[in-house]
Amino acid sequence: MRKARPVQDTLVLLVTAVFAAPLVWMVLTAVKSQADVYMGPLWPRSVHLENFRLAWETAPFGRYFLNSLVVASVTTASVLLTSILAAYAFARLRFAGRDWLFLLALGTLMVPGEVLLVPNFVTVKRLGWLDTYAALVVPFAASAFGIFVLRQTFRKLPVELEEAMFVDGASPWTVLWRLYVPVTLTSAAAAAIFVFLGAWNALVWPLVVTGSTAMRTVQVGLASLIYDQGYNLPVLMAAATLVALPVLLVYFAFQRLFVEAALQSGLKS
Amino acid sequence: MTGLALVLPPFFLLVFFILVPAAEAVLDTLRVERGGQIVYSLVRYAEMLRTISLRRSVVFTILVTLASVGVTFALAYALALYLRFSKGWVSTLLGALFIIPLFIPTVIASFAMVTFLEHHGYVATLLHTIGVEDTPSLVFNATGIVLTEVWASIPFATLVLLAGLQGIDDALIDSARDVGAGALRTFLAVVLPLNTVATVITMSLLFIGILGSFTIPYLVGGNAPQMMSVVMTNYFTNYLRPDISVALAALSFVIAALAGAAYVGGVSHRERGAV
């Protein structure tokens, strides 16, 4: 039986409240009247669900959601594919310069985004990709983080399994897709979740490379709404709730799986 | 040959969209026109370091980043230890909610922090009700940036540390307890040394992430001094000095590279241990 530890538990509950506070504040503000936001209590005196309708009507959020979904899904699929291929090669195949290439790939993790913003904008413009899905997806279609996480997982598998398949005449390609990929689905799921979240929550790059309303993602739409409706915090927070809701629902539906996937992935020492 | 063929597609993308632009940006900061000819010089860096506000920004950025990393690391380690070794509903609840910051857009989290921490915000009101009249300024300064960065960074740090802690065999901890080691001694003598690589990786990634963050310092920070990312944007868009902006970015890259060296060292150390 668990020992009662009231002080420790109270502290942990306080910490938990701190994590949840901005989310709670966002939802409560979304259903308040504008007068209540600044002068009223934390808890709304009356519920104003029309804020959600106003937020939805103020900007084309349906289009923003579609764009974000396309960008985040295609980016995630591309990162998974490229990471699986590279991780297998780095973990199990021998070729000239393997370790140097891996360290160089890891080195890309330390390059701050600001250094890349201007040169990549120029590149994307030269390629004629401004205001297209290509500009939003291709620069992020490979990830050193994904390669690293999957490589660590591949290295944990006993080499004997692979050798047995080679003895039976399998090619490296068959070994990869029949052996490695199926047993590393958990790590792939963890990497996929982080990549999807990164793409879904990206703001600065989509803001720079998209100009038309039709190509905006939800985060850019939200940022634009701050300029248009910044004075109307309830409508802004209703929009923010709509933006955060899909990923939050997915998280709470698969919360145990998400944490387990992250913990069982190559992040484990 | 097969190995190289599998590595090349992602490697090409990483080189084309990260390594080449980064190198190009740094080279651009070194190119100066003198007498109609392009020469390489450190003149922009000299100008940057002569400018007092930029020097202050660099120091401010490093201090805020170090403070954020330190606080995040301490809290994330405490959370990871609690989640690893505690059972019960409180632990389950914490396990479900500590990830939430990953799902909240940074812009909204920053808005929320401003509302909580501003002079007449919820925190000030709460402190007022328990008798604290003079609340220190908690937002639009370094404190606000640190608090928001900590809130936003804890989930990832906790996950990496927790993953490391889960790799430690329970038998080792039980053995330490069997020979009379208390909780602190067990942590210092067993848990911490066995989790060194996760510790180094967490701290390096936190440092690089916070050093380069823009949205939080932009929305929660003050007017002066500002973090380097905000100053870079100002020089690029408002002062029309992209050269200084990129020089600052290059300096930020050098600082991040020092943390990155620790990260790569940590990974290499793990590789050697795995062989």
Descriptive account of the structure:
The complex is a heterodimer of chains A (269) and B (275). Chain A has 269 residues and is mainly alpha-helical. Chain A is 75% helix and 0% strand. Chain A has 15 helices and no strands. Chain A has helices spanning 6-30, 34-39, 50-58, 61-92, 98-107, 113-126, 133-137, 144-156, 159-167, 172-183, 185-201, 204-209, 218-229, 233-253, 255-264. In chain A, helix 11 crosses helix 15 (255-264). The longest helix of chain A has 32 residues, at 61-92. Chain A is globular, with a radius of gyration of 23 Å. The model of chain A has no long low-confidence stretch (mean pLDDT 85). Chain B has 275 residues and is an all-alpha fold. Chain B has a single domain (44-274), classed as Orthogonal Bundle (MetI-like fold), CATH 1.10.3720. Helix content of chain B is 77%, strand content 3%. Chain B has 13 helices and two strands, in the order H-E-E-H-H-H-H-H-H-H-H-H-H-H-H. In chain B, strands 1-2 form a two-stranded antiparallel sheet. In chain B, helix 10 runs antiparallel to helix 13. The longest helix of chain B has 34 residues, at 52-85. The radius of gyration of chain B is 23 Å and the shape is globular. The model of chain B has no long low-confidence stretch (mean pLDDT 85). The interface between A and B is large, with 86 and 90 residues.
Question: What is this entry, summarized?
Answer:
With 269 residues, chain A is mainly alpha-helical. Helices cover 75% and strands 0% of the residues of chain A. The longest helix of chain A is centred in the N-terminal third of the chain and has 32 residues, at 61-92.
General shape of chain B = globular
**Percent of residues in beta strands of chain A:** under 5%
Q: Any idea of the CATH topology of chain B?
A: MetI-like fold
Low-confidence stretches of chain B are none
Organism (chain A): Candidatus Segetimicrobium genomatis
GO biological process, one term (chain A): transmembrane transport
Membrane topology (chain A): Multi-pass membrane protein
Family (chain A): Belongs to the binding-protein-dependent transport system permease family.
